[in-house]
Design a protein that fits this description.
10-stranded mixed sheet, 12 strands, alpha+beta
Length: about 220
């Protein structure tokens, strides 16, 4: 993927620790820009707010947000994802979404363009989009009982693999190759407590997969 052009809109190039031991760092190159047009993300916004209303995206009592949602842009590897630190908001506006324009799974880095930064969780979305071009939407939710019920009953990442790391990206590929993830379209992250992810050729399909398992 090509690099976004540099301009006066480039406001920050930063890295931060997201593992306590500080071994792996997530690097985000943020190019501050105008929000993406609401007409392009209207369905994304509706789905995100619906998931929040169900408690599947939100914030824990300690203030840490959970869950996010994304869609691929056209036939590219670019995608729009709900921004970092938005889990506490009941309703997101276009300024709460950002466009990931480039990523490097090995280096645990990405570039995003928009009014808000992308979180490290976006790299797992990137891994899935890069594996299959027909995947157009991804939903990542948290729910403790649902997570426990699905654990090792659907494709499940290894417990020792933390979320938002290069190792987790590799786990996505392993699940596609060894655990029929392409057909199941749902996975549990054993090393990311409460985390469940679904995907599909549309947000509707990703949501249908989620609620089919939810009702069982």
């Amino acid at each position: 993927m090509s690099n976004p052009p540099r301009s006066s809109l480039v406001v920050e190039n930063y890295s931060r620790k997201f593992m306590d031991e500080g071994v792996i760092k997530y690097h985000c190159h943020w190019f501050k820009d105008e929000p993406i047009g609401e007409d392009k993300i209207q369905e994304l916004m509706q789905w995100r707010d619906h998931l929040y209303s169900l408690g599947l995206i939100g914030v824990y009592d300690n203030g840490i947000g959970f869950g996010n949602i994304s869609i691929r842009l056209d036939e590219s590897l670019e995608f729009v994802v709900s921004g970092t630190q938005t889990g506490h908001l009941p309703h997101l506006k276009p300024e709460h979404y950002t466009r990931v324009t480039e990523f490097n799974l090995t280096e645990n880095s990405l570039a995003c363009r928009g009014p808000i930064k992308a979180s490290s969780e976006s790299l797992t979305h990137a891994a899935i989009y890069s594996f299959q071009s027909n995947i157009k939407a991804i939903i990542h939710i948290h729910q403790a009982e649902f997570w426990q019920r699905l654990l090792f009953n659907v494709p499940t990442t290894r417990p020792e693999v933390p979320y938002g790391t290069p190792q987790m990206a590799a786990e996505m590929f392993r699940l596609f190759e060894q655990e029929n993830l392409s057909d199941r379209k749902i996975l549990v992250m054993a090393g990311h407590e409460d985390g469940v992810l679904t995907f599909g050729e549309s947000l509707t399909e990703a949501g249908e997969v989620l609620f089919q398992y939810w009702k069982r």
